[in-house]
Specification:
The protein is of the alpha/beta class. It contains 14 helices and 21 strands.
């Protein structure tokens, strides 16, 4: 008889310092698929749900798939949004029981209006319905803030190993395989988590160069090889822009039965603590980035400038104007900037039409302290509905909806103005509005690190800007932490 497995996904990375709530509309703006829309939209992509579907096909499972939804990182998830989407899972558990297992693709850093541990709450509510014996497997982002409750309620919990996250599919496939083995009674997995007094660690999870994350992953692999009873080990850099008690890096180990998971987790977290001061990324001010552009004139390939401090992928508003203003003031030529999230400006460009010249105030409309609106005059070069599919390598095939989008040319800079906040981690963010990124001398992107997967291979040079002009700046001491456990590195400890 075919195994009956429920698969679902509710994902949000919550920046508790953001003024923008993650309500139902925010999830619908990114994606919100129910029932048959889930395989239709997600099969054949490189994300977790696709891996769950493929595992089911390999093993002949009968799947139930009530919900797959995600909102761009922002402020706290409203209770109404959480209840709306969690209810889809609970209803399926009630109406289509019994199940042999559950697979969940979560983020691991979701905070609700009235609950710090969003994933822990979801897992607890699921456990209350299905009992302690039913196997539950969970995939997580490596920027998860993993709580003790999350670890206690899952049988298998594994995080991505890459940043940029190009292994989402593979990690979910690993989760599914361990749950298959659990259903077959080959293993009895349990999850152990260890942490230290840190907000951020493991080089924030970066794997694009040798450093703390790659070295700790190598240590994890050695431990797995030396201890056959250890099934998986995850290194989580944590999500530091969350003012919650359990914010910060963790080591998570999945073990079979009584295999020494605790010792392995402590060994790994000790290594993260030991390397807490090390970083592979240097950030600069806008003026320095402009100097790099000048120096690179004639290089083969564009200079890619990343706006670290206003990264929508970490909860940034996507409308901070510091970097764009500096580029305009410097008179840069043959440049493209993606994106400034400003629905009003995008609507004005659509109303004016291609070829029109118009004056407007761009950006800086949510919190002007991160860069006031820029008063400018430009020409509308193109308009689009903002829909396209990601080219990869990260999340290849995923459908994107930026909302009404326009290209406004100001001097020598083509500015992509969109209506829904998105981190720019794929060339499609330029190409869908007629900009070929390879042909530009300068590309500026609202992204902290994910952009490297798509843009680093074409770049002559990469520059990362962090002047504190956004919600995702690494200057944590400027943020009003109240709930994080103290003392903690780097706020109080060395």
């Amino acid at each position: 008889m075919a195994r009956r497995v429920l698969v679902a996904s509710i994902k949000h990375e919550t920046n508790t310092f953001s003024r923008v709530p993650a309500d139902v509309a925010a999830f619908e703006a990114r994606y919100c698929y129910r029932g048959e829309a889930i395989p239709r939209q997600m099969r054949g992509t490189k994300v977790e749900m696709a891996a769950f579907f493929d595992a089911a096909e390999r093993h002949g499972w009968h799947l139930t798939y009530p919900i797959a939804t995600s909102a761009t990182p922002s402020g706290k998830v409203t209770r109404a949004a959480y209840d709306t989407f969690a209810a889809e899972i609970f209803r399926a558990l009630d109406d289509e029981a019994p199940f042999d297992a559950i697979l969940l693709a979560l983020h691991g850093a979701m905070v609700l209006e009235d609950e710090e541990d969003g994933e822990g709450l979801l897992l607890q509510q699921v456990r209350d319905k299905v009992g302690a014996a039913l196997p539950i497997g969970v995939s997580l982002d490596l920027h998860a803030n993993v709580t003790d409750r999350m670890a206690a309620l899952a049988d298998v919990m594994i995080s991505y190993r890459t940043y940029p996250h190009i292994d989402q599919y593979e990690i979910a496939a690993q989760v599914a395989e361990l749950i298959r083995r659990t259903m077959a009674r080959e293993i009895r997995p349990r999850v152990v988590v260890a942490r230290r007094a840190m907000l951020d660690g493991a080089d924030h999870g970066r794997t694009t160069a040798p450093g703390p994350m790659t070295e700790t992953l190598a240590l994890a692999d050695r431990l797995l090889a030396e201890q056959p009873g250890l099934l998986a080990a995850s290194i989580n850099g944590g999500f530091p822009w969350a003012d919650i008690h359990d914010v910060g890096p963790t080591a998570v180990v999945v073990a079979d039965g009584e295999a020494p998971a605790e010792a392995a987790a402590e060994t790994l977290i000790d290594e993260i603590w030991r390397q807490r001061h090390l970083s592979t990324i240097e950030t600069v001010e806008v003026a320095t980035a402009i100097e790099v552009v000048r120096e690179a004139a004639g290089d083969d390939g564009p200079v890619v400038i990343a706006d670290f401090a206003d990264n929508p992928g970490g909860g940034g508003y996507g409308d901070a104007t510091g970097l764009l203003g500096g580029m305009i003031e410097a008179g840069l030529e043959d440049a493209a900037f993606a994106t400034i999230c400003d629905p009003e400006a995008a609507a004005a460009c659509h109303a004016a039409g291609v070829g029109a010249s118009l004056s407007l105030a761009l950006g800086g409309k949510i919190e002007a302290r991160y860069g006031a609106p820029i008063q400018l005059t430009g020409t509308v070069q193109g308009i689009a509905d903002g829909s396209f599919q990601m080219e990869g390598p990260m999340a290849k095939g995923t459908a994107i909806d930026m909302g009404p989008t326009a290209v406004l040319r100001v001097g020598g800079i083509d500015i992509v103005v969109n209506s829904n906040r998105h981190q720019v981690l794929d060339r499609g963010y330029f190409r869908h509005v007629g900009i070929e990124p390879e042909t530009k001398a300068v590309l500026a992107v609202k992204s902290a690190h994910h952009f490297r997967a798509a843009f680093a291979p074409m770049a002559a040079r990469v520059v990362v800007v962090d002047e504190g002009g956004g919600l995702t700046s690494r200057n944590y001491k400027t943020l009003p932490y109240e709930k994080a456990r103290r003392p903690v590195f780097p706020l109080d400890l060395d």
